[in-house]
TrEMBL record, chain A:
Domain ABC transmembrane type-1: 71-291
Bilayer topology annotation: Multi-pass membrane protein
Native organism taxonomy: Bacteria, Bacillati, Actinomycetota, Actinomycetes, Kitasatosporales
Name of the protein this chain belongs to: Sugar ABC transporter permease
Transmembrane segments: 9-30, 67-92, 104-125, 160-183, 216-235, 270-290
Automatic annotation (TrEMBL), chain B:
Pfam family, one: SBP_bac_1
Name of the gene encoding the protein in the UniProt record: msmE_3
PROSITE patterns cross-referenced by the UniProt entry: PROKAR_LIPOPROTEIN (PS51257), TAT (PS51318)
Origin superkingdom: Bacteria
UniProt name for this protein: Multiple sugar-binding protein
Organism (species): Streptomyces platensis
CDD domains assigned: PBP2_TMBP_like
Signal sequence interval, chain numbering: none
Length: 302, 419
């Protein structure tokens, strides 16, 4: 009789504090945010009944060209970053997996950027590599070939800022997804390759296409899902690359940056910001569920 | 990444207020008046870059005998920190504010300081004081006046045969002539002037952000004409873009990356030290027959939080520091950074402001200074800046862009005036 009870006690002793923390710092603020979204809550987190606006904030957000534009930015960013990271991390994994020597070294080299802060990386990209003057790294290299200096983050035609944003994220996250693919690759039984070779499959592209790639399906689904969610939550590198003390340009402004300025900007429009956050959370949830069902995530392999 | 995002947002919001409370509770601050046993008052400042400024404000606090004033020197995004802290009881009693904003006044977050300022009201730089007045009440005491102006390198202009621009057309032409493979003619910030210029070109065209009737003050063809010329600067490739430091820092100007730079008065000592007499200052040049030179001025103010439990004591302290102790005000304005004292009588007395470009700057601020009106809200600023960005960088049609902004601003003005 005492056994299960004692186990219960230990269970709650360990899980309890975390559950309380989760409730207090995640679910209560979430619920409060939903509550605030129905009020005209400027500069207050405890609006009165007189400030009740019903779905007004939702209507305002959904008819706000800047918010809708930020969703467009997200879609464009996702269209760049998801396939680019997927291909790069898979390619790195395939290369590292084939190494006979120094595999651990190269695995670490590619994984290390993951430990770097997005803020630090963004600042390095902005100030050292892609600054717009003649002594920036990119401009110095291009200068050797006679090219004019380019203002990478300030030019909208062509939109070079995308190159800066995409490369910094690629550098930071490709190593992490490479590790996931490496784990997936190492789970493929070698006998399959031997059998394929016996059946006449040529090593290289043919083996990859008909054997390796299908075997990585579960990993691929998880990677794409994580990449899309992460893209939705893009904030740090955008904010640190493009904002200044006076604000943020209208281009390349993802939803979280826009909501940050709305809710936590000097205006403190917490009602409108909360409505935007709820809309964004719903979009992420729906996109994730649809994607998961589409890929058959969680379904048993046939 | 997910974790970082959540942490950042939490930190920027309620987390900051919580941290502020904890920091205060732990007594990590310094600057307490050693001999005082009066009530404790928490005073916040944003982090100034100038050496000695922090020590100075702690010295002022320690000299106050009627309360125990503890100073917090707050690095980071100060405006957001104070905005979040004012929602809680753990915020400051007295705080430096880039405002206060209309939303903060209407939201009852700051205390009416009219009776404190009234006896010396006329002695304040009026352009700096005006945005702190709402419904005939004063909600913040200007500490120092800062201004933005156009620095130009005399030798570079002379070599290129360009005279210091007196009109916007001359600025556009001059910047083009001064641009070459190694340097550009003009630096208006890495975003091409979108962030820093604000209403300056509109004022230069003889217009305003909000007119006397409380409507958008730039519903006029002159606005589009002037902004087209700013676009011309960008299209001509006369603007320096992507410099390692932005417009507020004179590094690009000093390093010779640009012949002219739009920056602040605070940059003047650094420029003088690097270039000697090889520079001059100008207002943003006038445009069109109805135009006038334009110089934006602004003032950090001292305000009292409405959530303070010691409002009376806090008011007495701000009166002592920012009305009575003129010696401290003079010291704060000129001994560390380089600002114009907010009080006209003090500015007139200041030795450092009597000759050369500094004296020119003071004259420009007096003759052509304008401040963003209190009614110009953050939502207005964002809409206008977004339009400005599209006009300058994308070559969007200024008329249609401005029409949209005028509609938005008029709706916003109607909203805030209803409160």
């Amino acid at each position: 009789m005492l056994g299960p009870q004692r186990r219960n006690l230990w269970f709650w002793a360990f899980v309890g504090p975390f559950a309380v923390g989760l409730g207090l710092f995640t679910y209560v603020p979430l619920a409060w945010s939903v509550y605030l979204s129905f009020f005209d809550a400027h500069n207050t987190v405890s609006p009165s009944g007189a400030d009740f606006v019903g779905l007004g904030n939702y209507g305002a957000m959904l008819s706000d060209a800047s918010f809708l534009g930020s969703l467009g930015t997200f879609l464009l960013f996702t269209a760049f970053i998801v396939p680019a990271t997927y291909v790069l991390s898979l390619a790195l994994a395939l290369m590292v997996n084939r190494l006979r020597f120094a595999q651990a070294f190269f695995r670490s080299v590619f994984f290390l950027p993951t430990a770097c802060s997005y803020v630090v990386a963004a600042v390095i990209w902005k100030l050292s590599i892609f600054n717009g003057v003649r002594f920036g790294l990119a401009n110095t290299v291009l200068g050797w070939f006679g090219a004019d200096q380019t203002a990478w983050l300030s030019t909208t035609d062509p939109p070079w800022y995308w190159l800066v944003i995409v490369t910094v994220r690629l550098w930071l996250q490709a190593g992490f997804y490479m590790i996931l693919f490496l784990a997936g690759l190492q789970r493929i039984p070698p006998q399959l390759y031997e059998a394929a070779a016996v059946d006449g499959a040529r090593p290289g592209w043919q083996t990859f296409r008909h054997l390796t790639f299908p075997q990585l399906r579960a990993t691929s689904v998880a990677v794409v899902l994580l990449l899309v969610i992460n893209a939705f939550q893009a904030f740090d590198e955008f904010y640190n690359l493009l904002s200044d003390a006076r604000g943020y340009p209208p281009y390349a402004r993802p939803p979280l940056v826009y909501l940050y300025y709305t809710a936590l900007g000097r205006d403190q429009n917490l009602g409108l910001g909360s409505a935007g956050a709820v809309i964004l959370a719903l979009i992420i949830a729906v996109a994730t569920v649809v994607q998961a069902r589409w890929f058959g995530l969680g379904r048993k392999e046939e | 990444m997910t974790e970082i995002n959540r942490r950042r947002l939490l930190a920027a919001g309620g987390g900051v207020a919580l941290a502020a409370g904890l920091t205060t509770a732990c007594g990590s601050n310094t600057g307490r008046g050693g001999g005082s046993s009066g009530p404790e008052i928490k005073q916040w400042y944003h982090q100034y870059g100038e050496p000695g400024a922090e020590r100075a404000v702690k010295r002022y606090a320690a000299a106050y005998r009627k309360a125990d004033v503890s100073v917090q020197w707050r690095p980071g995004d100060y405006d957001r920190q104070t905005a979040a802290a004012l929602l809680t009881d753990s915020g400051p009693d007295v705080f430096e504010v880039n405002g206060p904003l209309l939303e903060q006044i209407q939201g009852g977050q700051v205390v009416d300081l009219t009776d404190v300022v009234e006896p010396v009201k006329d002695d304040f730089h009026q352009a700096a004081l005006a945005p702190k007045i709402w419904q005939d009440k004063v909600w913040g005491i200007p500490q120092v006046v800062d201004m933005q102006l156009l620095y130009y390198r005399k030798s570079l202009l002379r070599e290129a045969g360009v005279r210091p621009p007196r009109t916007l057309d001359e600025l556009v032409d001059g910047a083009k002539k001064l641009s070459n493979k190694k340097a550009k003619g003009l630096f208006l910030g890495n975003d091409g002037g979108v962030g820093v210029l604000g209403g300056t070109p509109l004022f230069a065209a003889g217009l305003s952000l909000v007119d006397a009737d409380g409507k958008a003050g730039f519903d006029d063809p002159a606005a589009a004409r002037t902004l087209t010329k700013i676009r011309q600067l960008y299209a001509d490739k006369s603007l320096l873009l992507g410099a390692p430091t932005d417009w507020s820092d004179p590094a690009a100007f000093i390093q010779g990356l640009t012949a002219m730079q739009w920056s602040g008065l605070w940059a003047l000592p650094q420029i003088k030290k690097a270039l000697g007499d090889d520079f001059g200052v100008l207002p943003f040049p006038a445009d069109g027959s109805g135009g006038k030179p334009s110089v934006p001025v602004g003032a950090y103010g001292s305000a009292v939080s409405a959530r303070s439990r010691r409002k009376a004591e806090a008011k007495a302290f701000v009166k002592w520091l920012w009305v009575d102790r003129t010696d401290f005000q003079q010291d704060f304005a000129l001994s560390y950074g380089f600002h114009i004292p907010a009080r006209i009588s003090l500015a007139k007395k200041a030795e450092q402001l009597r000759e050369g470009p500094a004296a020119d700057a003071v004259r420009l601020a007096t003759d052509h200074g304008y401040a963003e009106p209190l009614l110009w809200t953050t939502a207005d600023r964002t809409a206008y800046q977004d339009a400005l960005s599209r006009i300058i960088k994308d070559g969007a049609n200024p008329e249609s862009e401005l029409r949209t902004v005028v509609r938005k601003v008029n709706a916003e003005l109607q909203r805030v005036r209803k409160k």
